[in-house]
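Wait, mind explaining this?

_____
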Amino acid sequence: MSGAQPIDCLIVGGGPAGMMAAIYLARFRRRVCVVDTGASRAALIPRSHNVPGFVHGLSGAELIARMSAQLDELAVTRVEAEVTALQRQGHGFQASWSGGAHEAATVILASGIVDTHPPFDEWRAAVADGLLRYCPVCDAFEARGCRIGVVGPLGPAAGKALFLRGYSRDVTLFATARDGEETATSGLAEAGVEVVFAPDLRLRRTANRIEAVFANGRTTQFDMVYPVMGAEVRSKLAVSLGAEHTADNYLKVDDHQHTSVSGLLGIGDVVTDLHQISVAFGHAAIAACTIHNSLPPRLA
């Protein structure tokens, strides 16, 4: 695409946030291109029950397929690649990737996050089967009454364990580090959450359950496990341009999804730790409308 006419908006990331922004912009008759590696975090969702209109839920892969069909219907240009550099170019930007580059008046960063997984060789299959879960806001309702394990540093994991305690009486937190110990343990004890310090804990699959394996060989089984191991926020393209960000590398944006870099907007998981499809959709709609209104009118 190098040398082609500059486009109105380049979208980095083809998950729910990026595709929704592309759908809006294409329907505004704007020239838009989506560059994506094809590894959306949403594709791992076995079944989401938070997407409106799907009474029995739908898988992340099905959602992406449905949205992809919309992009095809709108003839949105898509490139399967990883954007490796983003630079200012005149009043806009130039994005580069292996085998290509393009100029754009505006850029939406919808590159999301990559979860840090616990020590578990079969984590991908366990996610697909609903045994290893990352979002209690999304699916704790389906975990009602189950035996639940939470794995991670005590401080960050305590909040997730307490949230899950609202859905099950049997919640155990396996603390891999002791940060925030005194405050966290008192609240967990009051709620009836068992805390086990297990810095060397490993996980393994056993039939339709997950087994926690301790350093001494002792094991215990759970219906499902929620890791709280952190994530890589994929904001480095924006950060390289000087965009303001939090200590955890989430981009700081205003009410219109603008970053501190003019013409660069952020949406979805790259700007918030509330990792929800509905939030991504809302961000995308706001960003797309913001861009459309900021560009010269496109007359019929």
Observations:
- The first helix runs from residue 16 to 27.
